[in-house]
Every structure is written in C-alpha cells, then in structure tokens.
Amino acid sequence: MSAFAPRVFSGVQPTGNLHLGNYLGAIRKFVALQESQDCIYCVVDLHSITAQLVHEDLKGQIRSITAAFLAAGIDPKRHIVFNQSRVSGHAELAWIFNCVARIGWMNRMTQFKEKAGKDRENASLGLLAYPSLMAADILLYRATHVPVGDDQKQHLELTRDIAIKFNNDFSGRIAAAGLGTEIAMGDETVNGYFPITEPMIEGPATRVMSLKDGSKKMSKSDPSDLSRINLTDDADQIARKIRKAKTDPDALPSETAGLAGRAEADNLVGIYAALAETRKADVLTEFGGRQFSEFKPALAELAVEKLAPINAEMRRLIDDPGHIDAVLKDGGERAGAIAERTMRDVKEIVGFLQ
Ligand code: TYM
To answer: Which parts of the sequence bind L-tryptophan (predicted)?
Structure first.
C-alpha cells in the first residue's frame, strides 16, 4: 500500500494562561501550516488533570485556549479544532499504548521527573502515563507531522518508539488484515499501521525563556507573572514586562556568535526574530552595537503590534461562549469519525472481538 497521507496534529493543555512561548513555539506554526496541510488542533483536557485533578474553571480554560486558536487565525471549518475528552478514542488507544510502552521508557521522561519533583510516589499514575496518551492523540489520526516547542521533543521520540513497537509486535496481524502502509525508515521500507511521526521543531523561538531568568523556560506555572508575556496582556503590561526583563549591561553584538553565554540577550533577540519572522542574524545586523535601552522599546512595539489584534479577538470570542462551544462540538464530531475508523482497525489488529 502507498505511503501515509500527510496530516498535522498538535495539542495545547488548558492549564493557566497561554504565553508568548506557546504562541511562538506552537500556535503560530499551527496557523502557518494550515495553508498547505490537513490539520487537527486539540485542546488536551484529559492531559490537564494529570498534574492537578481539580480545576476551578476547566470549561473556561478550554474555551480560552480555543479562543486563542481562533484569534490567532486557525480556520475551524477547513481544519479540525476540538477538545480531547469529546473523542473517547484518545483514552482507549492510550490504554493499548500503556500496554505497548515500557515503564522504563516513562521513567526516563524529563518532564515527568520535573513535574513529579521529589515526591514521585505521590504523583498521579496519569502523570507517569502522560506520554502514552500524547502518542494516542497523534496516532489516533495517524498524523505524520507534529509542530511543537522544544520541550516536547522527548515525548515525540517516545511516540515514534510506541509506533515502531506496535508495528513490529503486530506486523503479522497488520499484514493479514491488509491494514499495512509502507513506511520509509532510513534505506529500508517497512510495513506498519502507524506512521513514524516527524516532529516539527524549528525557527528562532522553539524554546522561549523566562524574561526574569534566561536559564528557565517561559512557563504557565512560573509564580512570577513578570517572567512571561500572556496572550491576554494588554499593551501596557507587555511594554512593562519587556522594560523589566532581565538583561546584561553590554550592548547587543553584531553577530549571533556574540550571544553565546548571554542567555537573556539571546532570548530577547530570538523573540524579536520570531515576531518579525526573520532570523537572529538579521536582527543583529539592525541592532548590533545598540544598548538594551534602545532595543527594548523596539521589541515592545513589535510585540504589541503582533499580539494586540490576537488579544482583542480573543476577548471578543470569549464573550461568545456559544460560538466556541459550537466549534468544539463540530470539530469533535469530525475528529470522532476519523478516530472511530482507527479504533476499529486497532481492535482488529490486537484481536478484540467487535
Ligand atoms: P503545553 O500545553 O505545555 O504547550 C503547548 C505548546 O507550546 C509549546 N511551548 C513552548 N514553546 C516555546 N517556548 C516555550 N517556553 C514553550 N512553552 C510551551 C509546547 O512545546 C507545546 O507545543 N504535552 C503537550 C500537549 C500535547 C500535545 C499532544 C502536543 C498533548 N498531546 C500531541 C502535540 C501532540 C503540552 O503539555 O504542551
């Protein structure tokens, strides 16, 4: 059989405020990809209960992420936007993948170690199995490409390992059921049911760092709001946070090599490059030799110019929850139809009676 049809899948958790890292590392790429690809974008609510079970307003959070997707420019008619818990196939396939994946694979995940902290015995079982659910999200739609920030790289490697092991363990059944598709792996071609997904992690903002500490990732869970620019921040807040961002006393270098060992400078130049859709080298051609007192206002102006329209549209959408709910319901139905076909095949391959 021929190769897999290209399909993009990605997800965002409905926990905390979306920030500039989520936007530049993921959501903006989602928007760009929809011009040329068939895309499925998911608000991963099942994932959001792994670290914290009870949320004050999970429904509001789900709507807010959906609003950000739409405000950024994702077209839910041409593509699919939905929340994960609507499609039961995610949890079903994750269970099968829990039996494919090994405990050792999960124990090696750096995000699990970070999130579980010292009290590992007390972390939820869901937090440990999280990457198996993530693999199910992607492979339920047999997605071939996954745009994400750098922090998801290890999870996507694990998704590939799960697909490879499933394809190998069930190779005879897959062939017997006529459900195999050709997969190019290096010089070899193998037959499998699940594609070996390609991560898409590129550009100047795959890892946007905290504005207060260039060694830490910009994160929803950082207790300091000054560490991140939220998509809901207004122009004054954005300008203030950039003004207060940590920097060093030197002028900007003229070449990217000069950013080595200057994490905060590197981060701000990367953010500028990503917002301006250019490269760090081009930013330094323009600003090399200038002080942060000149660069920061230019960065603030650019950030406000790019983020203000999204912010305004998000607010408008959040005021119309009926519209958001209708988008998610329609997306859930269309995602569900694809998922149902996959689950029928998977149950046949595993050998369940149906
Ligand atoms: P989440 O919700 O933490 O983040 C959503 C997306 O934003 C990216 N991101 C960043 N990119 C650059 N710099 C940063 N500081 C930064 N912080 C976050 C993340 O890499 C991500 O792309 N496990 C995922 C959600 C998920 C998923 C999936 C993703 C569940 N199933 C299937 C892809 C495919 C997560 O927690 O992302």
So the answer is: 137
